[in-house]
Specification:
By secondary structure, the chain is α/β, with parallel strands linked by helices. The protein has 16 helices and 13 strands. The strands form two sheets. The chain has a seven-stranded parallel beta sheet, with helices on both faces. The longest helix is centred in the N-terminal third of the chain and has 19 residues. The mean pLDDT is 95.
Length: 381
């Protein structure tokens, strides 16, 4: 074997951000032929990522359609992958995390007896319906995968407890590698909605909320807590890039649409999002990725969910879970806005998610599997 043929598959914005630095790393290895396949599960939000990181996409399944269900995403990905795998015959397929794209692509590879490598393996809440469908997606991928790239030691321990087969590596999280590419003190925002923010005078609260399990009352509680904060603190600006989901958009517009100093904006490109995070004061989110990214930039994170699959961040002190009750969210955010001590305790905690070398470790591990190099050492926090 002269070269290892590795296919990288992704379909959503978070996957693309976290896989982009890995694609770039693999393309830099002379022993690797890297093939990029996207499903297009998040079409509008995916394309800018591909452009910003300068990725060349070899295959685009373009599965997205209005009001797509989970079953449609899964079935179209499996049938779409079949001719691509037949044509390219990769030695390994890499999938990321817990999306329906990742699960379906892993299953399609398994059906052709192609080994699967799982990036960001071993995250668990222990509740199969929260987050939904991600918790079950990632458990099923763990059963299929033969190489498991866990961001942290506790992720790896989750897999060992489940007695998964294959090789487990502790790599750190590739999102920290991505941040090293995008964040810069000299970065200039280009979206009009960000140009009028005075970061010296306003404390910016960056918000994201879009999880399916928060639809309904929990999402309304989150929005109402943000409304309360906006009226209670005249020096804060709430910036909320609103997810494309009609449920999220309708709720945000109804509760926050006319509130002063609340900016409901379109989803941002990754370079603006990362640099906004770097300059904000505090992050409130139900997103997984932001729990890893913001601490790398020294920003406290309040998680507006009932549980998190990232307990390392809670243990390290970079993240606090505040649930989905209006009063609790307001109280915990107020503490960070009122107390310098509480704020700096979280802001200065050490990020347990990586050192920016995760992609190097993953590439080394793949080359080790195919006999090209030594087994890489684990990332130790």
């Amino acid at each position: 074997m002269d070269k290892v043929k590795v296919m990288v598959v992704f379909g959503t914005r978070p996957e693309a951000i976290k896989m982009a630095p890995l694609v770039l790393e693999l393309k830099n290895r002379e022993q690797v032929e890297c093939i990029v396949c996207t499903t297009g599960q998040h079409r509008q939000m995916l394309d800018p990522i591909i452009e910003i990181f300068g990725l060349d996409v070899d295959f685009d399944l373009n599965i997205m359609e209005p009001d797509q269900t989970l079953s449609m995403i899964t079935s179209k990905t499996i049938t779409g992958m079949e001719p691509v795998l037949e044509k390219t015959k990769p030695d390994m397929v890499l999938v990321h995390g817990d999306t329906s794209t990742a699960f379906a692509a892993a299953l399609a590879a398994f059906y052709r007896k192609i080994p699967v490598g799982h990036v960001e393996a071993g995250l668990r809440t222990g509740n199969r319906y929260s987050p939904y469908p991600e918790e079950m997606n990632r458990r099923l991928i763990s059963e299929i995968a033969e190489m498991h790239f866990s961001p942290t030691k506790s992720n790896a321990e989750n897999l060992r407890r489940e007695s998964v087969t294959g090789d487990i590596f502790i790599t750190g999280n590739t999102v920290i590698d991505a941040l090293h590419t995008t964040v810069s003190k000299s970065f200039r925002f280009y979206s009009d909605c960000l140009l009028d923010i005075d970061f010296d005078r306003e404390r910016v609260l960056l918000v994201t909320a879009h999880r399916r399990e928060n639809y309904g009352r929990p999402l309304e509680n989150i929005m109402n807590a943000l409304r309360d904060l906006a009226y209670a603190y005249p020096d804060i600006r709430i910036v909320y890039p609103v997810h494309m989901s009609p449920v999220v958009r309708d709720t945000a517009e109804r509760i926050l649409g006319n509130v002063p100093r609340v900016s409901l904006i379109e989803p941002l490109n990754v370079d603006e999002m990362h640099n906004l995070m770097d300059r904000c004061h505090l992050v409130l989110t139900d997103s997984g990725g932001l729990q890893e990214e913001a601490p790398a930039l020294g920003k406290p994170v309040l998680v507006v969910r009932r549980e998190t699959e990232r307990p390392e961040a809670v243990e390290a002190g970079t993240v606090k879970v505040c649930g989905v009750e209006r009063e609790t969210i307001f109280r915990m955010a107020s503490e960070l806005l009122d107390s310098e001590e509480a704020y700096s305790q979280m802001a200065n905690a050490v990020n347990p998610y990586g050192d920016g070398k995760a992609c190097r470790r993953i590439a080394d591990a793949i080359l080790w599997r195919f006999g090209f190099s030594e087994r890489p050492g684990d990332f130790m926090h």
